[in-house]
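Progress narrative, Year 2. Work on Fe2OG dioxygenase domain-containing protein from Chlamydomonas incerta advanced from sequence curation to structure prediction during this period.
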Amino acid sequence: MAPSFHIPLITLPSRAGDAIAPDQLDLLRQACLDHGFFLLNNADGHGGFQIAPEQIGRVWAAAADLFDAPLEAKRAVSVASSANNRGYFSSADHAEYNKDPAGVRIKDNKEGFFFGSDNLISPGNRVPAGKAAAGVEVEAYMAAGRAACVTVMRAIVAAGLLAAAGETCPDAFESRYLSDPVYMAKCLKYPPSNGNTDAHTDYGCITLLLPGDSGLEVHVGGAWHPVPFAPGAFVINFGDLLAAWSRGAVRSTIHRVIYNSAAGAPRYSVPLFLHPNRGTAVRTPGGAAAGGSVGGFGRPAGDGSGDVEVDTYSYVLSRFDATYKHRAAATAGGAGAEAAAAAMEAEAGTAAATTATA
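Result:
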């Protein structure tokens, strides 16, 4: 029987020392097993917030300011001219790699700005001329969003959802894998009627989405279901890497945006994506058992288990290569994500590797 569709609102403490209520852990476990989506209450239940409401207001204003730049100014900072995949992109920059559940290949219909942490390839976010203040505001929001994502990952460990990978202590997990995580954000703008949309799974660990409106849908049980829009809450979902790392305890589910505004207004959103520390390798099932985009990536563990060891940073770059035309062209002819990752490691400095075992 297909799981019933319900996306719970979950409250988590924003400080590591505060206990998570048992009923909230139960809701988290069920959401991860059912579909990998939940709403994170911005109010943390202890008088604080995951992200200050004033900061959320400022990032909305910053996103609007970025998109208000003239098209020529936006194109001047295109990701296609960036070695580090930062800056402006539109549907023309995307490779047609996504498929809907029926197997039909489709392309995104949106524009956006891509921001990354300093340990993602190389430093330097890019914004249109005259929009430096907006860029600073997005980076400040990213830092707050990173902390909220770490809170969620700690809860995942506390709920026992990474026990199959040998990870049961939130403090040890954070110290080992999230002391300097790779993270990125996008400011996105969808047209009032966005037509074709990309049905996809996310490829990393956690996505923290600040939605400006409804329109997000999840594919569960052979049907599309709307994700509730709740002002004062973030949408959390999980990617292919965490699903494989958890050995199926956490689901990575196909989702899309369908948006048609009767008022003719565009839809804005700000997703933030969290990955482990640069230099981290995780052990996952190999092949089809891994699911999603992880199955064909990584090196055999060499112990006859059929597992693979996935360098998470190289994996992230491989997904960039599949998503953006300019990166696909740059890595054509056998260069591939591993060569690109090696070159970028030499540029930014080698990180110490840690390996998670299951």
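The first helix runs from residue 22 to 34. The two ends are 29 Å apart (CA to CA).
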